[in-house]
């Protein structure tokens, strides 16, 4: 009997999800014995033309990590959708847009102006910018087109399942692989390997009444290791984040950053967090409330660190 065929692809992301696949530890031996990995550019020598030559739906499972930032990412998303029976948005970048999605505050030209001209370490007196084509004596050199807007995978193609996290924890990765191997997949569209409610449900810190007079960044305060971080004024995104990671960050005295995306039923994770923060400010005086709000460092980066591309707004208005 033929083994199931598995593919993995790395689009616009840091590459942490590629490493996370190896975090399944000894299960990597079970995986290697149970499947044929037919596409994994970071680990095996295979070309896009080899995938294009495959029969449609010949890949049983594809883990696609990374957002869609370029024309190459878009092409591969559509190609792997065509060639895969089951396509999984693996990790926060594919599911939510994640850190690359923060670029949706700016246009492509603004991104290029900063990266290739205004950064302190850049020396580019000629103002050179990347070109999609450039002619040299050997022929035409080509680069993928850089899109104005970062998109999530499901904004480009149909996605069958989601595995959240930045990166997903090993238990989640193995859960989706094992489900495919056993033929025990949940309903299409499901989030695999995570819960439905907020991270607070699995956090062991003691929660009390929240009466906030000031918000702190983690390095600005010595916190009580037993008490809810948000109770102490440290912005913890756990109230607006799906459970499933075991609250690993709060367990080591760091606030949740929100990488598992919104809990079930929450449309916009950032809006949910902002609503919660507004409700815990201990004042009815408008000036005092404004002063407390001013202590939130980088509001967009705090509330939408992982979800700008998947939010209601998705990006700032282009000129």
CATH structural architecture of the largest domain: 3-Layer(aba) Sandwich
Order of strands across the main sheet: 2-1-3-5-9
Give me the CATH superfamily of the largest domain: NADH:ubiquinone oxidoreductase-like, 20kDa subunit
Helix tally?
Answer: 11
Q: Could you tell me how far the N terminus lies from the C terminus, measured between alpha carbons in angstroms?
A: 57 Å
Return the CATH topology of the largest domain: Rossmann fold
Please report which band the strand proportion falls in: under 5%, 5-15%, 15-25%, 25-35%, 35-45% or over 45%. 5-15%
Helix percentage? 25-40%
Give the CA-based shape: globular
Residue-averaged pLDDT, rounded? 93
Largest sheet: 5 strands, parallel
CATH class placement of the largest domain: Alpha Beta
Are there runs of 5+ residues with pLDDT below 50, and where? Answer: none
Question: How many structural domains does the protein architecture include?
Answer: 3
Order of helices and strands: EHHEHEEHEHHEEEEHHHHH
Rg measurement, Å: 22 Å
Please tally the β strands and state the result. Answer: 9
Question: Structural class, judged by helices and strands?
Answer: alpha/beta
């Amino acid at each position: 009997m033929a083994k199931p065929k598995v593919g993995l692809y790395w689009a616009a992301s840091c590459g942490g999800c590629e490493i996370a696949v190896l975090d399944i530890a000894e299960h990597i031996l079970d995986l290697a014995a149970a499947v044929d990995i037919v596409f994994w550019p970071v680990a095996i020598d295979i070309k896009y033309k080899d995938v294009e030559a495959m029969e449609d739906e010949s890949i049983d499972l594809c883990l696609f990590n990374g957002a869609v930032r370029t024309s190459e990412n878009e092409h591969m998303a559509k190609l792997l959708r065509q060639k895969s029976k089951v396509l999984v948005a693996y990790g926060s970048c594919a599911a939510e847009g994640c850190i690359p999605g923060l670029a949706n505050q700016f246009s492509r030209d603004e991104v290029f102006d900063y990266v290739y001209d205004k950064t302190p370490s850049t020396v580019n007196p000629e103002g050179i910018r990347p070109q999609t084509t450039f002619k040299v004596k050997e022929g035409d050199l080509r680069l993928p087109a850089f899109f104005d807007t970062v998109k999530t995978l499901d904004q480009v193609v149909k996605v069958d399942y989601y595995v959240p996290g930045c990166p997903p924890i090993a238990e989640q990765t193995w859960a989706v692989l094992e489900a495919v191997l056993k033929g025990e997949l949940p309903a299409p569209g499901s989030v695999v390997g995570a819960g439905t409610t907020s991270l607070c449900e699995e956090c062991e810190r003691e929660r009390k009444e929240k009466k906030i007079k000031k918000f702190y960044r983690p390095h600005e305060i010595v916190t009580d290791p037993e008490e809810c971080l948000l109770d102490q004024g440290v912005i913890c995104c756990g109230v607006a984040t799906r459970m499933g990671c075991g609250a690993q960050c709060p367990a080591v005295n760091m606030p949740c950053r929100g990488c598992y995306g919104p809990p079930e039923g929450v449309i916009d994770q950032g809006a949910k967090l902002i609503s919660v923060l507004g409700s815990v400010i201990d004042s009815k005086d408008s000036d005092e409330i404004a002063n407390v709000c001013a202590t939130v460092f980088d509001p967009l980066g705090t509330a939408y660190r992982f979800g700008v591309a998947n939010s209601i707004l998705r990006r700032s208005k282009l000129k």
